[in-house]
Design a protein that fits this description.
It is built from no helices and 14 strands. The chain has strands at about 20-25, 30-35, 40-45, 55-60, 65-70, 85-90, 95-100, 110-115, 125, 130-135, 140-145, 155-165, 175, 180-185. The radius of gyration is 22 Å and the shape is extended.
Amino acid sequence: PGTTCRRVHVASTAYRDTDRAHVFYVDLISLECTTSDEIEETQLIDLKDADNRTAEVTIIDDDEPGVIAFQAPKEGSPAKALPPVTASEKSGHAKIRVGRFNGANGEVHVDCKFIDGTAQNGKHYKAQNHPVTFHNTEVEKFLEVELLHTGLEDGVEFSVVLENVRSDHKERQPSLGHHTTSTVHIVADAD
C-alpha cells in the first residue's frame, strides 16, 4: 500500500565497444498486484495496450570521456539538421541543452561562444563566452541566455558554438560531435 515505485534489476554483460552508447528497451507486459486488506486478492493486469509501457534504457560507456555536442535528432546524425532553439522575447531567457554522449568518465571542459546573427549581444540578448564543465558522470548541461525585452516586431537569431573540448585525462581525450552550432531564434511577442 502506498508504493508507487519499484526497482527492476537488469543484468548486463561487459564488453568493449566505444563506438556508441548501448540502447535497449524494457516492455512491461503485465502487472501482478496483491492486496492485503481483509481478504488477500491477486489481480493480473494486462498492459499490452497501455500507453507509456516501454522504457528506453541507455548504457553509457563510463570509461571514456565522451563526445560533446548539442542534442541532435536520433543520435546526432550529421545528415539531420539540428532544429533551432526557439524562445519568446517575453519569456526573458533561452535554454540550450549541451549533451555528452558515448562516455561520461572524468571532468570535461568545452568553450561556448556566442555569435550575433540578426540578434545582437547586449541589445537582444545578454551572454558572455565561457567554458562549460561536465563533472564525472554528468551527461547534460543547460546554457541559460538572458533575452532582453526590446519590443521586437520580427524574430531575430544568434548562434552558440562549442569549441576547444578538453580534459585532464592523459590517455583518452573527449571530442566534439557533429552538431557544434546551435541557432537560437527569438520570436516577437504576440500582442
